[in-house]
Each structure stands twice: as structure tokens, then as C-alpha cells.
Amino acid sequence: MNNNTTPVSSPLARRKRKTIHEEPDSPTTYKRIRANPLESPTPSPQILQIQQQDRLVRATRILSSLEKDQLVHIITSLVANNPSLEQEVASHLPTPTIQSVRNLLESSEKKLNETYPYSKWGPDRTSDYAFNRVRPHLTELCSTLLHYVDHFTNPSSYPVTQMHEYAQNSFTYLHLATTIVHRLPTWQTQTHTDQTKLSLYAHVGAAYKLVIAEVGRKVREEGKIYGATLLTEWGKWLHEHNAALNGEFGFGEAWENFRTQLGWLIGLYPAPTSVQLQQPQSPGHMHYPVSAALGLGGWGGSSTFLTS
């Protein structure tokens, strides 16, 4: 008998030897580890990176399938449970624009309008029953309006590179917000109106005064120049809102502040003495009378913006 006969390797033995000589980061090794994670308690950095990428892909697919409200809930819950994430999450949020907020408000107002109950006379926009029916959507719209009033009119909301947008964004948003508030119902129960429509008017009126003071300061102290067309548009909006509200809720004071602090730039008010004493400006910076800028005889006429 030949004792030197080479034993035939079994398939299992060959498989074990092959496994021993596999590269630690080879695809085969990775597949085996995924099938049996306990086989490699200390995977290499490359394997860890692949595993992390896998988790991100799975998370991305799941998040992509969620509705907006679900995503908002997830993010707000994460921030609530991990306050340290607030700054990081905020740094990734895009800056709101007038157009994006306009779209948001239009959507919110549409939901509100679709919620009013109907009677034989049409939508019920005054009764206590209707108020309780639409309260969630009404509260959402009011909260959104107030949030962006504070955002657009607060100078600290603007980084240095966007500070030049402050005046235009502020006046445009306040006009948009006031126009929406005009359309809100006046309820049979006065406290309901006080808590919604009238409260919003007061908040917007105060914001108008803040913006006018800030823009006036920029003109006086920083020499900021605003075009006659823009100033005329801002003044016309405020004038018509003030007329619609009979000067209430701070709009009368805001209009007077606009006239005295900015109106002289478009001929609404005598220029301050310090400006009158300056040398004449070049034609490109002349302050045109408001009637010339508007092509009208003044600020009279009907307020058409409410129905436009």
C-alpha cells in the first residue's frame, strides 16, 4: 500500500482555504459579512464606508416616498429630541423668498376657503359653527402670516450680502399680508374677529412702522437711495390700506411716518433742512413729485388693489 498518496481535498476544505486567502475588503468578503455580520466583529474602514452608504441609500428611498407633513414631523421631532441639531438643521434650510411664501400663503388660504360650511345662501363665513369648523386652517394661516411678518421685517433675518433686499421684501410682504387679512371673515362673535383679523391688522401696522423707521434711518444715516418708482409703489400700497382701515390699527401712524421720513423723496413732504442745504443733485437722483411718478394728480381715487 502506498502511504504517500496525496489525500483528495474535499469541497469544504477547498472553500475554507479560499476564504482564508480572500482580501479583507473584497466584494466576496463584504457579501459574506452582510449575510453574517458576526463573522467580522471589526470590519475595515472601507467596509464601514460601504455599510454607511447602504444605510443612506435606504433612508433616501424611504424619505422620498413620504408626504411633506411626514417629513416636517420627522425633522421637528429630531430637533425637539436633540436640541444640539437645531443650528445644523437651520444652516441647511433655504432662505424664504417672497414668491415661495406667497405660494405657501395661497395654499393655506385655499385650504381655509375650502373648509367653510355651506348653507342655502352659500358659504357660511360668519357663524360660530363655521368658526369652529375652519379654526385649524384659520389658525394655520394666521400663524404663517405672523411668522413671515416677523421674518421679513426683522433686519437680523438678512445676512450682510442680502441686506439690500430688506426694504423691497418688507414692503412687498406687508402689502401681501394686509391684502390677505382684508379677505378674512368678520365673525358674528366679536372675540373671534379680535383674535384673528384685528390682531393681525395690529401686528402688521406695528411692522409697517418698524420698517419705515429702519428704511428712513438708512436714508438719513447711510445715504441709501431708493428709486422714485419703488417709493411710489410702497407709498401707494400703504396709503390704500390706511384708507381701507380708516387709519386704525397703527396704519394711520405708519402712513404719517412714511410721509415724513420717506415722502420727501417723492414730493409728498418737504425735504429735511439738512437735505435742502445740500448742493443740487444730478438729474439721475432728482426727487420727482409723486404725481409725476404716478401719472396722476395725487393719491386720490378709489382703492382698486383690494379686488385686483
TrEMBL record:
Residues 1-44 are annotated as: Disordered. GO terms for cellular component: cytoplasm; nuclear membrane; proteasome complex. It holds the Pfam family Cut8. One of its GO terms (biological process) is protein transport. It comes from the Eukaryota. GO terms for molecular function: proteasome binding. It is found in: Cytoplasm; Nucleus. Transmembrane segments: none annotated. Its main location: cytoplasm. Binds the proteasome. Belongs to the cut8/STS1 family. Involved in ubiquitin-mediated protein degradation. Regulatory factor in the ubiquitin/proteasome pathway that controls the turnover of proteasome substrates. Targets proteasomes to the nucleus and facilitates the degradation of nuclear proteins. This is Tethering factor for nuclear proteasome STS1. It comes from Rhizophlyctis rosea. The gene is STS1.
